[in-house]
Amino acid sequence: MLLERWRWIVFRVRFHPWTTNELPKILRSMADYARLMRLDRPIGIWLLLWPTLWALWIAGRGLPDSHLFIIFVAGTVLMRSAGCVINDYADRSFDPHVERTKERPLAAGRISNIEALLLFTVLCLIALMLALRLNRFTLLFAVGGALLAVTYPFVKRFLSVPQLYLGVTFGWGIPMAFAAQLEAVPRVAWLLLLGNMLWVTAYDTIYAMVDRDEDMAIGVRSTAILFGDSDRHIIAVLQMMALASLYLAGHLARLGNWYNAGLAAAAMFCVYQLWLIRARDREACFRAFLNNNYVGMSVFIGILLNYQFSYRFAQ
């Protein structure tokens, strides 16, 4: 009798009109929300997370607070998602005219402007709840980071070098991590932020090279347009300056050979990227942009190994 009852319930749920008509719509909407937050393209999360992890490990001298680690990882995912949502909202009149972005949920009309703003608000509120668990000094930096994330999509309307602004935005987790761990932001944090800003400017210029022709046609500003035919040379200089800043930060933090080996690996990936973009091919430029995940990872592995082996030696 019980088995027959369960079969009847399963049959009713399976063939109920709401299940057959509404559930697929809800699932499609959830998938579009995930695409709007770029959860299907986690490269942005990694590029935002690596500098934060650099700072957490250096500020914690190789042993960052586990509570802070969870907050910063979750906060990175939330703020990157919120940044993608507000970016697409700001670009809703431009994205339909760009080949790479015309199928985004907001540009294609699968999600309304109101839905996007509501999603952005919810993500920011959850991130705020996390930030409230940090000390007051860090909370001030969190407010500044939120302002940077919200204003970036609109800054690129009039600023010819929006990639520099993005570099500060993507690196703001660095001073926040030091503030949370030490309740202070030493010079090494600002050197890391400088290195990150230069690195982001380089890789986002590579990213902008993919859409350069379309951006010029619709009036979007970028360093790829500003640099013109000198783009590859300037990118190389930016990468060298970024690595130099990170080397100085490591010297200030008394990081040793393992860290320098990580920087050397990052430098090799940068050389590979310059080779990829040599002909300015769109697909090759996009692959070069994605390759920057390994640059950030190499620096972090160098930091991790430095503290791991230094700790063992001290024991």
Task: Please characterize this protein's 3D structure.
With 315 residues, the chain is an all-alpha fold. It has a single domain (37-314), classed as Tetracycline Repressor, domain 2 (Orthogonal Bundle). The chain has 15 helices and no strands. The longest helix is centred in the first third of the chain and has 25 residues, at 66-90. It is globular. The N and C termini lie far apart (67 Å). Residues 18-24 have low confidence and may be disordered.
**CATH domain topology:** Tetracycline Repressor, domain 2
CATH class: Mainly Alpha
- Coarse shape: globular
Secondary structure: number of strands: 0
Residue share in β-strands: under 5%
Sheet with the most strands, sense and barrel status: none
> In terms of quaternary structure, what is this?
single chain
Mean pLDDT: 86
- State the CATH architecture: Orthogonal Bundle
Q: Helical element count?
A: 15
Please, how many domains?
Answer: 1
The separation of the N and C termini measures 67 Å
Unreliable spans are 18-24
Tell me roughly what share of residues is in helical segments: over 70%
Work out the radius of gyration.
Answer: 22 Å
Order of H and E elements: HHHHHHHHHHHHHHH
Classified in CATH, the superfamily is UbiA prenyltransferase
Helix/strand-derived class? mainly alpha
